[in-house]
Specification:
Blueprint (H helix, E strand, L loop, with lengths): L7 H13 L2 H8 L3 H15 L4 E3 L4 E3 L1 H25 L3 E8 L6 H12 L3 E8 L1 H9 L5 E5 L8 E6 L1 E5 L11 E5 L5 H12 L4 E6 L3 H9 L5 E4 L8 E2 L1 H4 L7 E7 L4 H12 L28
Parallel strand pairs: 3-4, 3-5, 8-9
Antiparallel strand pairs: 1-2, 5-12, 6-12, 7-10, 7-11
Helix pairs in contact: 1-2, 1-3, 1-4, 2-3, 2-10
Length: 305
C-alpha cells in the first residue's frame, strides 16, 4: 500500500485551526463553515491515521502528532502556493491601515503567514490613529483599514467589540486627595478622549504627567509605575494590571472594531478576511473588565472556541 496523498484544502483547514486555536475563527478566515472544516480535518486525520487536533468545549489544541505535522503542513501549503504563483506571475499589493489602538501582537505573525501562503501578495501596512487612517482611506491612499469605530458610525464590516480598562503597574500608588496621574497620547487620540470624558463625568480630578510620544512610550511610562492609562484590554502592557475598581475609576465604554475596504480581487480579499478573523469575538462579556486580559505571547488569542 502506497503513502497517502494529501488534499490541499484539508491541510489548509488543519493549519488554520492550529493557528487560530479555534474552529469558528478558522472557518471565518477560510470563508466557510465550522462543519465544512471539521469534515476536512476528519478526512485528513483518517488519511494520515492519527489525531491532529484535540477539541474540548473550552479548548482547541494540537495533539502530539499534530505538533509534529504542523511545520511540514505549512511547508506543503507554501509549496502549493509558490507553484500557483509561478504559473500566474501575478504580483499584487494592497495598502492596509491599522489603528495603533487596534493593532495587536498577533499582526506581525499573521502577515508573515499570509506571505508564506501567497508570496505574490505584498501588504503595505500603515499604523496611525483611526481618524487619520479613515481620512487616508476616503482620499484613496489606502485600500483597506481596520480601525476603532468613530463618532460618524460610517458603514463597514463590524469585527467585534473593543473593550477598554484602566491599567497601571502593580506597585502604582495613587496618593489620597491628589489628582489621578494620567499618561495619555496626543490630544487627537480617541482613547484619550474616552478616558478624559469618563473622568470628567465621574467628577474625578486628573493631571497628565506624560503626554505624547506614541503608544509604546505611554506603555513604557505606565509599566514604570509613573501613571495610570486607559488601554484597549487586548493591548495593555503584560506587566500591568487593571486597577479601575481598586482606584474607584469609572467604567470605560466599549467601542467597535470596523473594517473598511475597497478591495475587489479574490486573493487580496481572502488575505484581508484572514486578518479580520483575528479580531472577531463571539462572546459578549458581562462587563468590560472581564475582557481585560492580554493576548498570549505567541500572538494568538487564548482559549478560543
Amino acid at each position: 500500500m502506497g503513502r497517502p496523498t494529501l488534499d490541499v484544502e484539508a491541510v489548509q483547514a488543519f493549519v488554520t485551526i492550529a493557528d487560530f486555536q479555534s474552529f469558528t475563527r478558522a472557518a471565518e478566515a477560510l470563508g466557510t463553515t465550522q462543519g465544512a472544516i471539521s469534515v476536512k480535518l476528519k478526512r485528513l486525520e483518517e488519511r494520515l491515521g492519527c489525531k491532529l487536533i484535540e477539541r474540548t468545549p473550552r479548548l482547541v489544541r494540537l495533539s502530539a502528532q499534530g505538533a509534529v505535522f504542523l511545520n511540514a503542513a505549512r511547508d506543503f501549503i507554501a509549496a502549493h502556493e509558490r507553484a500557483l504563483v509561478a504559473l500566474s506571475c501575478e504580483c499584487r499589493r494592497f495598502r492596509l491601515g491599522i489603528a495603533e489602538h487596534v493593532a495587536g501582537p498577533e499582526i506581525p505573525t499573521l502577515l508573515a503567514r499570509l506571505n508564506e501562503r501567497d508570496p505574490a501578495l505584498t501588504i503595505e501596512v500603515r499604523l496611525e490613529n483611526s481618524r487619520s487612517l479613515l481620512d487616508a482611506f476616503d482620499n484613496g491612499e489606502l485600500d483597506a483599514v481596520i480601525v476603532r469605530q468613530e463618532d460618524d458610525h460610517r458603514d463597514g464590516e463590524d469585527l467585534g467589540p473593543e473593550h477598554f480598562g484602566w491599567f497601571a503597574a502593580p506597585g502604582f500608588n495613587q496618593r489620597p486627595g491628589e489628582p489621578l496621574r494620567l499618561a495619555a497620547l496626543a490630544p487627537c487620540c480617541g482613547v484619550r478622549d474616552i478616558a478624559t470624558r469618563a473622568l470628567g463625568g465621574a467628577g474625578i480630578q486628573w493631571s497628565e504627567v506624560f503626554v505624547g510620544g506614541g503608544h509604546a512610550a505611554v506603555m513604557a511610562a505606565v509599566s514604570a509605575g509613573l501613571a495610570v492609562a486607559a488601554f484597549s484590554c487586548r493591548l495593555a502592557p503584560p506587566d500591568t494590571i487593571e486597577v479601575g475598581q481598586r482606584l474607584g475609576l469609572p467604567e470605560l465604554p466599549s467601542s467597535r472594531i470596523m473594517l473598511h475596504s475597497t478591495l475587489s480581487d479574490r486573493r487580496s480579499r481572502e488575505a484581508l478576511r484572514t486578518l479580520a478573523a483575528a479580531y472577531r469575538e463571539h462572546r459578549a462579556p458581562k462587563h468590560a473588565s472581564a475582557e481585560c486580559r492580554p493576548f498570549v505571547s505567541d500572538g494568538w488569542p487564548s482559549n478560543a472556541t
